[in-house]
Amino acid sequence: MIVMKFGGTSVADCAAITRTISIVQSKLGQKPVVVVSALSKVTDLLYRIADQASVRNRLETAELLEQLRSRHIGLAHDLMSENPSYCHKACSSVNEICDNLDTFVSAVCALGELSDRSKAVIISTGEYLSSNIICCAMNARGIKTGFMDARKMIVTDKEYLKGEPDTAAIQAKVPAAVSAAYEGNDAVITQGFVSVTADGEPTVLGRGGSDYSASLIGMAIDAAAIEIWTDVDGVRTADPRKVENTKCIERISFEEAAEMAHFGAKVLHPLTIEPAVNKNIPIYVLNSMNPAGKGTVILQNSLIDDGVKSVSFKENILVINIFSTKMINTSGFLKKVFEIFSINKVSVDLISTSEANISVTVDSSQKIDKVVEQLSGFADVFVDSDKSQISVIGKNIINLKGLLQKTFTPLADCKIYMISQGASYVNLSFVVDRSDLTDAVRQIHKYLFENESSN
Fold first, then answer.
1. How many CA atoms lie within 13 A of 40 on its CB side?
2. Element (DSSP H or E) covering residue 130
3. How many whole angstroms separate alpha carbon 333 and alpha carbon 328?
4. Does residue 452 have a pLDDT over 50?
5. Residue 69 backbone phi and psi in degrees, to 5
6. Digit-coded pLDDT (tens) for 26-71
7. Class of 2-231 in CATH
């Protein structure tokens, strides 16, 4: 049994879904569990609906809801015009889901208050729309497909917008759900991203969480493989949207992939790796627009060669500098500092310390006002904005002669605010001005992967 996850661009429209169904059809012998995202850009639309509902803009929400409905109804007709019964079934599902959402949004508008729980209900609707349509389209094409509701399998805590999975509950629920859905069928389909608390309250796994859903399901059923189908030919040596002449990486380790995802690579959700590691399940990153391509396989560390694999980056970060003479020869100071980050649920990426100074980086999307306020009670705190983080990632990079020279030679004209080498020797990271990011990444990539001397 394998898990196949298809992202938004792989289910964007009739042509994309037709390709996706063909890919699934070619894997029926491996008993696929198909996990789908919302159609491309639909989750963004749902976020807009939630935002407008929170300010009681009923007119705007009605217009956006009509866009949502018409796009999915149109897609159902495009996919199943030659099979009226399945087309009718898909359209009925779409109308029922959209009617329920309309009623729910109307209630939010009346209250003028949008709780995290309510937002989770709204933004998860896209996956139910896409999975119902694709399930009908697969059946219309002769692939007997069973439908599964992810909220009967994926259990989290009560962080409604970024649920922490309860892996024990998931491993208890998923196998039975998959087995029941497979009864008399060739394949089964479910939703990525969406989840539920133990009490049945709706949650989601956070933006991009469909990868995570696929990995959790793969772990629970001891899948032979987890396939992440996207719109690029595997994991590349850098983001092709910023860097020319990137190369597809044939194979990388779980550790390298986790670092790439955490430090800015867009191909995988950062939390995807952990469930697969627990069961040593290979993850394949493949291109639904080029199904014949090899893509990238992510394997255990012992099967991977040493060397640099990629240059990743986070474009918009903050550097928080904490200075206090109370640090000098004092135990417990770091604990006090990082308890403040923990209490305020602000995650830290890089850390650098000296005798009286701590510097950390955090993603700019995080709210740090309370952190700064509380730290300022016992230290001087300075925040540098408009910074970017660049990470050179590979296996045993500490053993690579000349790596520092190749990495920092292109940065002769850049200010470097912070440098960090991971204890696992998997990444070398540093912070530059955001205005220098694109040129710096391109130059480093050229030195590491394009110059003959780097080979």
1. 11
2. helix 125-140
3. 9
4. no
5. -65, -50
6. 999 999 999 999 999 999 999 999 999 999 999 999 999 999 999 9
7. alpha beta
Distance CA 394, CA 361 (A): 21
Q: Determine the topology of domain 310-454 in CATH.
A: VC0802-like (3.30.2130)
Coil, helix or strand at residue 414: coil
The DSSP code sequence of 211-274 is HHHHHHHHHHTT-SEEEEEESSSS-BSS-TTT-SS--B-SEEEHHHHHHHHHTT-SSS-TTSHH
Rounded CA gap, 315 and 78, in Å?
39
List pLDDT tens digits, range 98-110.
999 999 999 999 9
Q: Which helix (DSSP H) or strand (DSSP E) does residue 363 occupy?
A: strand 357-363
CA dihedral sign, ordered 164, 197, 221, 144: negative
Report which residue type is found at 85. Answer: S
Pair type for strands 145-147 and 187-191: parallel
258-268 pLDDT tens trace: 888 777 666 67
Report d(CA 5, CA 35) in Å as an integer: 5
Contact 101, 166 (CB under 8 A): no
Q: Report which residue type is found at 406.
A: K
Which tokens belong to 219?
């772990």
Burial class (CB in 10 A: 0-12, 13-18, 19+), 298: buried
Task: Report the alpha-carbon angle 222-226-228, nearest 5.
Answer: 160
CA pseudo-torsion sign 446, 448, 450, 452: positive
Q: Is there a contact between 276 and 226 (Cβ–Cβ < 8 Å)?
A: yes
Distances (CA, A) of 210 to 126, 189, 191, 227, 344: 12, 13, 8, 12, 26
Measured CA to CA, the distance from residue 4 to residue 352 in angstroms comes to: 40
Non-local CB neighbours of 308 within 8 Å, separated by 6+ positions:
392, 393, 394, 397, 400, 403, 448, 449
Q: Is 104 buried (19+), middle (13-18) or exposed (0-12) by CB count in 10 A?
A: middle
Pinpoint the residues of the chain covered by CATH 3.30.2130.10.
310-454
Structural contact between residues 58 and 65, judged by C-beta atoms closer than 8 angstroms: no
Q: If you average pLDDT over each of 317-321, 409-413, 425-429, which comes out highest?
A: 317-321
Q: Is 431 in a helix, a strand, or coil? A: strand
- Start-end ranges of CATH 3.40.1160.10 in the chain? 2-231
CA atoms within 13 A on the CB side of 8: 15
d(CA 384, CA 361) in angstroms, rounded, equals 9
| Per-residue confidence (pLDDT) for residue 422, from 0 to 100 | 62
C-beta neighbour count of 293 within 10 angstroms: 14
pTM of the model: 0.87
Beta-sheet strand order (sheet of 202-204)? 155-156, 194-197, 202-204
